[in-house]
Amino acid sequence: MASEDPPSLALKQALCYTCWNISSNLSRCLACKRVSYCSKNCQKQDWNRNHKALCKKLVALNESKGYLPSSNRCWKDYYAEQVYHSLILMISYEPYCYHCYRRESQIEDGARLKTCQYCRLTSFCPSCQPTHPSAECATLQVIATDDRILVDLRRRTGRSSTIAFTGLPRQQHFPLASATDWYDYYTRLSDKGGLRFKMNRDLKYQGHDRKEREFVEGIRYGTNTTTYQLTLLAAIEAIIPNVSTRASINLHIIGAAGAEFASAPAFEELLHLLPSLTALHLSFVGKNVFVPHEEGTKTQDLHTLQCCTTCTTMGRSISFTTWRGPYHAYVDTDSYKTPDLAAAFHSGFSVDEQADWYPTIEYLAHASHPTLFTAARNFEILGEMEIWKSLGAAFVRNAEVNKWKGMSPSLVVYGDRPNEVSYRNHWWYIVEQK
Ligand SMILES: [Zn+2]
Ligand SMILES: [Zn+2]
Ligand SMILES: [Zn+2]
Ligand SMILES: [Zn+2]
Ligand SMILES: [Zn+2]
């Protein structure tokens, strides 16, 4: 989900849709029954904001019952209606019966869906068993917990993400590959060793201090942001043999969008974990790249990312340029310099905008540098492998689960099955240089 979207819990009517208040006393819009509020005031606010227009459409949707076979309604029946109505998140994430795939407007008149009391993200109609597999419920409970962390974070700080990385540059290079997981990275390679016994391997806080709990929750939730830098670092280690003595590294981020920019301060982690590195250069290239100067100009301005005092005093720096447009066009410009590594996070090139991506993919299959790719879902990886195969590409790293994927899951909107979840940068692979 994008950072401004309401949390899944609010979309599932377990939080006030306006203020995201965690209240047990929510009341629903009586007309559409698809949003819940903690107070009349919150309802009024949302009504004036956009519910007034939306409510009518939702009522109409409720009245069109859809295809309802008397028995054996399957996920595909639900899914087909979902895709048809996919325009707003409120519909995409609506509660439906986990077993018979009916939304509330499709069950017996006046009957209500019951919510799983543990995850609050799964619903059941009165005719079905009010249970779902406990392992699945446990994963959904993580989403619910993280939703609450996010709500709390936005309230306290106004921000939607946290970034936790090593506070000071390390004197010695410890390969990231030597860390077994995020816990090992934070407590051994980074500087959160003090939390070793206060959080478990899943970065869940085990103590009783409120401030410390917020901090650990921030770290855990923040893996969805720093996943970009650690995945890059893992790829750099895989492709640059003399990485522990390199003074400069040049990275290209292809198709960069909001999430990559939100994680930008964490690029300093590369300086902090690679002691020999004094200059890191980043180029953000893509259709959605934010260009800080006039639109349409094709010149590149060099910007610097603010580093910590220690790095600055040592003369170490991170510079970046942005270029709006497709990567295969960028390579023909004067500002292009062959990178050590290019990276495309969640490109989805086998699924969306295939025609847009294809010339870039064709170029990268035989580029003179390696390229890192990530995807959230396995079927995307399978599709991508087909395309690379047809282009005769080879791999430094075959597609596999990424050790540095984000730890905070999200509900997949149009999953292959109910309650499917995905993780940021779940899968990764590196295309070889030619
Ligand atoms: Zn409210
Ligand atoms: Zn309504
Ligand atoms: Zn049911
Ligand atoms: Zn549950
Ligand atoms: Zn620094």
UniProtKB/TrEMBL annotation:
Per UniProt, which keywords does this protein have?
A: Metal-binding, Zinc, Zinc-finger
* Glycoprotein listed as a keyword: no
Q: What GO molecular function terms would the record report?
A: zinc ion binding
Q: Which InterPro entries match?
A: Mito_gene_expr_regulator, Mss51-like_C, Znf_MYND
Q: Which residues form the MYND-type domain?
A: 16-55
Q: Tell me yes or no: is Zinc among this UniProt entry's keywords.
A: yes
Q: Any signal peptide, and if so, which residues?
A: none
Q: What is the protein named?
A: MYND-type domain-containing protein
Biological source species: Lophiostoma macrostomum CBS 122681
